[in-house]
């Protein structure tokens, strides 16, 4: 493939990932700048073996399991509208620190990914970018906030279509062969709690992630046996 085709393909992937509601920073040093809006939506979730589900202390299946924190928040991107960003405990602790020091109403912030595709130790840096001027404040105030409980697949009638049951089984079969960190990475990259929550329009991205993770976590080939020994 020529350099022009490579460049066009890369740009198409970039614009496809930016076109949705959920913010995805897919490569090392990818970044986005915008303003945090509204209240955060925190969820405690537990691992079931196939994916995450909301933690319920009264559910016998959740006894002895340690819940993990996921926090979603509206994030206005100038020129691209209102989006949703979701992070874990460490990222939200960083958000609380910048909120206390700078306030979220008067600044835009940069979120930058630190970690390559497939790196389960990926982190996200959060830094103040610019003060919000009157024109940008008017844009933000005019933008409609997303209904976070509905968008995060908590049972609302407005949740988007998901992949087929056959695809869920295929994804789960591959992920069961990988370490838990790889499964966590897969779900976090797609912004879902469970494999069956992968959105239909994210099917291609899910398959791409599985190819990357399979290559990274494939078991070493067994020692070759000499048939003439």
* Class derived from helix and strand content: alpha+beta
**DSSP strand content:** 15-25%
Q: N-to-C SSE series? A: HEEEEHEEHHHHH
Tell me the distance between the termini. 45 Å
Task: Indicate the low-confidence ranges by residue numbers.
Answer: 11-19, 154-159
Number of strands: 6
Give the fraction of residues assigned to helices.
25-40%
**CA-based shape:** globular
The Rg value, from CA coordinates, equals 20 Å
Mean pLDDT: 80
Please give the count of helices: 7
> Largest sheet, described in full?
6 strands, antiparallel
Structure description:
This protein has helices at residues 3-18, 89-102, 134-142, 148-151, 165-175, 180-190, 203-217, and strands at residues 31-47, 52-54, 68-77, 81-87, 107-114, 123-131. It is globular. Residues 11-19 and 154-159 have low confidence and may be disordered. It has a domain at 3-157. Strands 1, 2, 3, 4, 5 and 6 form a six-stranded antiparallel beta sheet that branches. The longest helix is centred in the first third of the chain and has 16 residues, at 3-18. α6 (180-190) runs antiparallel to α7 (203-217). By secondary structure, the protein is of the alpha+beta class.
């Amino acid at each position: 493939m020529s350099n022009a085709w490579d460049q066009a393909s890369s740009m198409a992937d970039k614009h496809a990932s930016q076109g949705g509601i959920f913010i995805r920073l897919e490569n090392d040093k990818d970044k986005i700048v915008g303003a945090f809006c509204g209240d955060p939506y925190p969820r405690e979730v537990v691992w079931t073996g196939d994916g995450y589900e909301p933690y319920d202390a009264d559910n016998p299946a959740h006894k002895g399991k340690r819940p993990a924190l996921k926090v979603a928040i509206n994030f206005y991107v100038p020129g691209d509208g209102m989006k949703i960003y979701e992070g874990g405990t460490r990222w939200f602790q960083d958000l609380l620190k910048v909120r206390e020091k700078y306030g979220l109403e008067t600044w835009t912030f940069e979120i930058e990914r630190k970690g390559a595709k497939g790196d389960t130790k990926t982190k996200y840096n959060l830094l103040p970018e610019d003060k919000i001027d009157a024109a940008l404040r008017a844009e933000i105030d005019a933008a409609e906030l997303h209904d976070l409980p509905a968008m995060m697949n908590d049972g609302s009638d407005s949740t988007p279509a998901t992949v087929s049951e056959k695809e869920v089984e295929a994804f789960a079969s591959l992920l069961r062969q990988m370490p838990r960190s790889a499964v966590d990475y897969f779900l976090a990259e797609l912004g879902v709690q469970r494999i069956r929550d992968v959105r239909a329009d994210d099917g291609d991205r899910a398959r791409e992630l599985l190819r990357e993770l399979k290559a990274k976590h494939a078991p070493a080939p067994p020692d070759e046996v000499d048939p003439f020994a």
